[in-house]
Specification:
The chain is mainly β. The chain folds into 5 domains: about 1-85 and about 115-320 and about 870-920, no CATH class; about 325-340 and about 765-865, no CATH class; about 345-410, no CATH class; about 420-555, no CATH class; about 565-745, no CATH class. The protein has 12 helices and 51 strands. A hairpin with a 5-residue loop joins strand 24 and strand 25.
Length: about 950
């Protein structure tokens, strides 16, 4: 079971690694069992074991003390419910078709917290135990104001002593080892209601040991209840007792309470089953701490309605019965080496002053920008400041000479370049398609009704099947009272039927030769790929053709570096002004939570009738923006200026999306009735064109020079532009720009400036790879789909469509839900399996390239599915008294007995104190 397989990481302290011939064979695989009590009980120790594994101690035996930097986000197995809930939020095809720019999947990268530790690994000879001494710096944490169960915690210095006496064997599956940990304050701290404690004070500790037939874990810590686990091995069975932290929510008072559970468990590896049973529960009072600094505990009896149960439960541990999702995939070339991009991201560091003291800030720069912890925001000085902070690149193995240095430049907006390419209609085979149908519209409504849709405006979900060139829509989607999917009698039509039905002929002159026939295209959004597809007449008539003449346009986005900022751009549709933007932002800051504010967009730059000549037509969409309404933007340095010469920027005082209080505005094209956008998500313009490209999107004309669509409100001769022509393959505009502004760091793009060359560093953008979903017995309706994926560097493969599951039962709740529950998770609908397994396909490049890549799941989560209630539970005989006592804790800090101390942090370090290891990778040359 993977619960205990996590403990195997501890062996990396002392057991040398035998490397395979290729990275594909050698890269380790790690899956974590989520929502499982024994794993939750070991969460802290698993984190420390991950830290030690990331220090590469097996490669550094007897080499002296060294510094290792660890990325905390790769060692945290956190509650993902918030990000999962966001992923499960429904997406409307209508809003997607009018939403403007959107940031890439990596654009909202979280800040990378770096833990810097010192480690020394020694072994006298082959017959002696291996000793690892570790000094781990843990940054402090601020209380989450939105989580009343959270509290602030100070920075810690943790002392760790690991001793390995025997390697794993047939009689001792984990070998013989122990880890002794002592937590001390790295700086003075005053707990709520308690006296101030000086730096160096012991505030807790932990103990982990493995012997031939037993694993013991114990942890005590200030402001936390004691926790522990004891597991005993007997043949193929593991049984024991553990503590688990959880919580309950009182709907009547709208308050939460932390709960500690004591449970017993048993695991049988032969039967592939894991069972757990309730022993005891305590309600924790963090407002009142005991003499040991731990919260007071009172007995608590679960009610069932509080989400807790006293019933026993059994789960299958068979891999083929587990629900699994993958967080990191490795992609490999034919020779087994990792697929790398050109200029990849890299870590760097700088010294800054915080409250009069010098601190080191670790940063990471990549294609999506420059990232460092927000607590250093005021301390890090930008390129525009008088004395900018200078960062030094952390060098890797093979990099020699003086490391390069950089400063950070920050814009108040992000400029993105949009480039269009073409795919065939047949490539959409099987992809989920969302389409908004104007069934109640007097113009196209009758045609939609002829196809089988209802005479109402509604959204439908279906798919395209290439083998018979047929569209099938079998669900109706509504948003009126939350997101709802309703199964309907399938509405089916062929490409030929669409072309025959969805057309209108306009008489534009005295002869038939002047008549104009318009065939309406399909606009669908696929949540599988995250792309919208404007499918025109030519594409429908030539479904296998991906040329610029007959293909469907697909947009790719890249962030523009300042060196390549265009001097001026022209906005036809969806245009911002600095005045309107800041009025909306200020209204949000000053207003009530969830308020509706005025739109930041200019109203005349939307293809919507104003009702100036016919009040009944107000709000109706009609193509065309007057040339006199086109707005010109310019750039100056890092700034984007509107037509008045004012910078497009959110006020500098707005540094967090929370300041906007969830305020929203309604889109002007919607008439301000239905579709809204939350300001905190950021705001994007429509397409911004070079002046030479404006003429190419002038609305189409007849042979006599008149516009094909007679505008109900514009003068016949007034020049006008139709932005939707950018979706016409015959129009020769293959790239344009969009601008994003917002309160978030990813909307205030940071760039890295090389101090030696004064040039901005240009990082390689993600590359697009494709995967053909296979095996219908496993993946059902997804089988046969071709999915486009973003590869953003090793371990970063994104774009696999997902669904919501109930982790208690494994039941799918569909792709979207607005009724989120704490036991829901958003998981991938299919796994990309190793191409060496049977006939599983490889990843491949698009176009004419024949290059393919192997893939391997590296890290992820699993959920165990419950055994039926009729299953006979395993025998569980543990009691609360079996939990390890506090006496197992050993103080290895300078405060402990001399014989146990590992000593103060060493000052003589390899590599002159610079990191010798950066998260598993040795970055110095070893003898």
């Amino acid at each position: 079971m993977r619960t205990f397989r996590q403990l195997l990481f501890a062996l990396s302290l002392v057991v040398g690694t035998v490397c395979a011939q290729t990275a594909f064979q050698d890269d380790p695989v790690n899956f974590y069992v989520s929502d499982n009590g024994t794993n939750d009980a070991l969460a802290q120790v698993n984190k420390f074991i991950c830290y030690m594994n990331a220090m590469a101690p097996d490669k550094m035996v007897n080499r002296g003390a060294y510094v290792a930097n660890i990325y905390e986000d790769e060692c945290d197995v956190d509650d993902m419910s918030a990000s999962d809930q966001a992923a499960a939020k429904p997406t409307s095809a209508q809003t997607e078709s009018n939403s403007g720019s959107s940031s890439g999947s990596g654009a909202n990268r979280e800040e990378r917290e770096v833990t810097s530790s010192i480690i020394e690994v020694t072994r006298t000879d082959e017959n002696s135990p291996m000793i690892a001494k570790v000094w781990v710096n843990i940054p402090g944490e601020e209380a989450d104001p939105e989580d009343e169960m959270s509290s602030a915690f100070p920075p810690m210095l943790i002392y760790v002593k690991g001793t390995q006496s025997a390697a794993p064997s047939a009689t001792a599956r984990f070998g013989e080892f122990k880890m002794e940990m002592t937590y001390t304050l790295a700086e003075a701290f005053a707990p709520p209601g308690g006296p101030s404690m000086p730096a160096g004070t012991d505030i807790g500790g932990a103990y982990l040991s493995a012997t031939e037939n037993e694993v013991v874990f114990k942890e005590e810590m200030m402001m936390a209840p004691p926790s522990g686990l004891k597991a005993t091995f007997s043949g193929n069975t593991i049984s024991g007792v553990y503590n688990q932290m959880t919580g309950i929510w009182d709907e009547s008072t709208q308050t939460g309470s932390p709960i500690q559970l004591v449970q017993k468990f048993a695991l049988n590896d032969t039967d592939k089953v894991y069972c757990t049973d309730f022993l005891k529960a305590y309600k924790l009072d963090f407002e009142n701490l005991g003499a040991d600094g731990a919260p007071n505990r009172t007995d608590y009896t679960p009610t069932g309605s509080d989400g807790l149960t006293t019933d026993s439960a059994c789960y299958s541990t068979a891999l083929d019965e587990a629900q699994r999702t993958v967080h990191r995939y490795g992609v490999y070339k034919a020779d087994g080496s990792r697929l790398t991009l050109g200029q990849g991201g890299f870590p760097m560091k700088a010294d800054v002053t915080v409250d009069g003291a010098t601190q080191t800030v670790h940063a990471y720069a990549d294609y999506w920008g420059v990232h460092f912890p927000s607590r250093f925001s005021s301390a890090v000085k930008l390129d525009s400041d008088a004395s900018p902070t200078i960062f030094t690149k952390e060098q890797f193995l093979g990099e020699t000479g003086t490391p390069p240095t950089y400063t950070i430049a920050q814009a108040n907006a992000k400029i993105e370049k949009i480039t269009r390419s073409f795919v065939s209609l047949s490539s959409l085979n099987g992809l989920t398609a969302l389409m908004f149908v104007d069934g109640a519209d007097s113009f196209w409504g009758p045609q939609f009704v002829s196809l089988g849709f209802a005479a109402e405006n509604a959204e439908y979900q279906g798919k395209y099947t290439h083998s018979n060139q047929t569209w099938t829509f079998d669900k109706k989607i509504t948003f009126e009272s939350g997101y709802t999917e309703t199964a309907i009698t399938p509405i089916t039509f062929t490409n030929a039927k669409w072309l025959e039905t969805m057309k209108k002929t306009f008489e534009n002159g005295p002869g038939a030769e002047d008549d104009h026939t318009e065939v309406r295209g399909l606009w669908v959004f696929s949540p599988d790929s995250g792309n919208g597809y404007d499918i025109r007449k030519n594409s429908i008539e030539n479904p296998t053709d991906s040329s610029g003449t007959n293909g469907i346009i697909v947009r790719t986005t890249e962030t523009v570096t300042p060196t390549n900022f265009p001097a001026e751009l022209h906005c036809v549709q969806q245009c911002l002004t600095a005045t309107l933007l800041n009025a909306s932002i200020q209204a949000a800051v000053d207003g009530a939570a969830g308020a509706t504010v005025a739109s930041p967009f200019i109203e005349e730059n939307f293809e919507v009738l104003k009702g100036t000549k016919n009040a009944e037509e107000k709000g109706r969409m009609f193509p065309g923006i007057l040339a006199t309404n086109v707005k010109k933007y310019t750039t100056s340095g890092l700034r984007v200026l509107d037509a008045a010469g004012t910078e497009l920027a959110v006020a500098a005082s707005v540094t967090s999306s929370s300041q906007l209080k969830g305020a929203k505005f309604f889109w002007p094209w919607d008439g301000g009735n239905s579709f809204s956008h939350e300001l905190s998500y950021g705001i994007g313009t429509g397409p911004l064109l070079a002046e030479a490209d404006l003429a190419k999107v002038e609305c189409k004309k007849n042979t006599d020079g008149t516009y094909q669509d007679e505008h109900p409100e514009f003068d016949a001769g007034a020049k006008r532009y139709c932005a939707d022509l950018l979706m016409d393959p015959s129009v020769d505009v293959n790239s344009w720009y969009e601008v994003r502004v917002g309160p978030n760091s990813w909307d205030r793009q940071r760039f890295l400036e090389d101090q030696a060359t004064s040039a901005y560093v240009v990082f390689t953008p993600p590359t697009q790879l494709y995967y053909d979903v296979w095996d219908e017995t496993k993946y059902g309706s997804d089988a046969g789909k071709t999915v486009s994926l973003d590869y953003q560097g090793f371990g970063e493969l994104h774009g696999i469509p997902g669904e919501v599951i109930d982790t208690r039962t494994g039941e799918s709740k569909g792709q979207y839900t607005e009724e989120w529950q704490q036991y829901y998770r958003y998981v991938q609908r299919f796994l990309i399996e190793p191409s060496t397994a049977g006939t599983a396909p490889k990843l491949y490049e698009g176009g004419s390239s024949t290059t393919t890549y192997d893939v391997k799941a590296l890290e992820g989560e699993e959920w165990l599915l419950k055994k039926p209630s009729s299953f006979t539970a395993l025998t569980m005989s543990g009691t609360e008294a079996d939990l390890p006592a506090a006496s197992v804790l050993v103080d290895v800090s300078p405060n402990g007995e001399a014989a146990n101390q590992i000593g103060a942090k060493p000052t003589t370090l390899l590599n002159d104190g610079k990191p010798a290891v950066i998260h598993k990778e040795v970055v110095i040359t070893l003898d």
